[in-house]
Write a structure and sequence with these properties.
Oligomer: single chain
CATH superfamily of the largest domain: Response regulator
Radius of gyration: 30 Å
CATH topology of the largest domain: Rossmann fold
Shape: elongated
Number of strands: 12
Structural class: alpha/beta
Helix content: 40-55%
Strand content: 15-25%
Largest sheet: 6 strands, parallel
Distance between the termini: 108 Å
């Protein structure tokens, strides 16, 4: 009996050894490879671009540049925007993007407490990098990684210098700005004032308004009543310009007034073509979109760390009617 048990155990050992050997041989001869560590797997970065406007020439160009660069970098990007400049929807989109835990957010800066709370607290909690685009918010107040867009102070200087070149070194002008005093508008205004203060015979009349069209029209009407011989208007916020020009055109020949603004509103370039604006600051929205995606992908890949806190500036130029016909 003992011999039989011993024989069975020896037979079982040889059978198991045979199957172990043949299985090992198959593994050695196969094309099987050990899986790569997770850090080596090619993962697509999930990005989102959030703006206050959608379907406008300026922001369509931003989106075009962002999509093109995302495709080149192998990233996924979603574009979120609003119709009608709705701040509540804009902030809701930003909060949803944060809670979705995307890899990076490119967002039009909004100089409000609510915006800064989302970027400084909630986005930071999830370690989501924020890049502001076109409109900046101070880094220390928002914890954004960097800014991509026009150098606003220099843009203000350029526009004021063009006014002096066209109008001459004397006259009365209205400096029309948004009463909310957003950071990027403050930079533009400071740039303008740094130029205009060099000319003692130019009188600058700073005027605040809301960005509601009826309020803009009413304020323009009051200004034309108070200053019937006004020589020029500069709209620091491009959203002010259409309503302002509408009221000026109703009261006098618009060609008799020097009018200037920026190109980041859907109606600006058509008004420039019609000769109702003397000049505008032309910006580079497509380059803003492209560069912002490039930088955030480089940051996520550890290629550009840290990003320049002062920002990455895109080109600006003076546009006249002849340039857009």
């Amino acid at each position: 009996m003992r011999k039989l048990v011993t024989a069975l155990l020896v037979m079982t050992f040889f059978i198991l050894a045979y199957f172990t050997f043949t299985s090992a041989e198959r593994v050695v001869r196969s094309d099987w490879q050990e899986p790569l560590p997770l850090s080596q797997v090619d993962q697509q970065h999930r990005l989102v671009l959030i703006t206050q406007d959608i379907d406008t020439p300026f922001w369509d160009a931003v989106a075009k540049g962002a999509r093109s660069q995302a495709e080149q970098d192998g990233a996924i990007i979603e574009i979120l925007g609003n119709y009608g400049h709705d701040e509540e929807d804009f902030l809701r989109n930003l909060e949803l993007a944060i809670h979705s835990k995307v890899d990076g957010i490119i967002v039009q800066g909004l100089d409000t407490v609510e915006f800064k709370e989302l970027t400084k607290v909630k986005a930071a909690f999830y370690s989501i990098p924020i890049i502001t685009i076109a409109n900046d918010v101070p880094m220390e107040e928002s914890l954004r990684r960097t800014y991509v867009g026009s150098p606003q102070y220099e843009a203000g200087q350029m526009l004021a210098e063009q006014l002096v070149k066209d109008m001459g070194e004397s006259g009365e002008i209205i400096l029309f700005y948004d009463q909310k005093q957003h950071y990027y508008q403050e930079q533009r205004r400071e740039g303008m004032e740094s130029v205009l203060k060099r000319y003692p015979d130019i009188t600058v009349i700073p005027t605040a308004t809301t960005d509601v069209k009826d309020d803009i029209v009413a304020t323009t009407q009051e200004l034309l009543n108070d200053y019937p011989n006004i020589d020029g208007f500069i709209a620091v916020n491009a959203n002010i310009a259409p309503g302002m020009i509408q009221e000026i055109s109703r009261r006098r020949q618009v060609e008799s007034v020097y009018i200037y603004t920026f190109d980041d509103h859907a109606e600006i370039l058509p008004l420039l073509r019609q000769g109702k604006l003397d000049a505008v600051i032309g910006q580079a929205p497509e380059e803003m979109g492209r560069l912002s995606v490039q930088l955030i992908v480089e940051w996520l890949n550890g290629e550009t760390v840290p990003l320049d806190f002062d920002g990455y500036f895109t080109d600006i130029t003076i546009l006249k009617a002849a340039d857009v016909r």
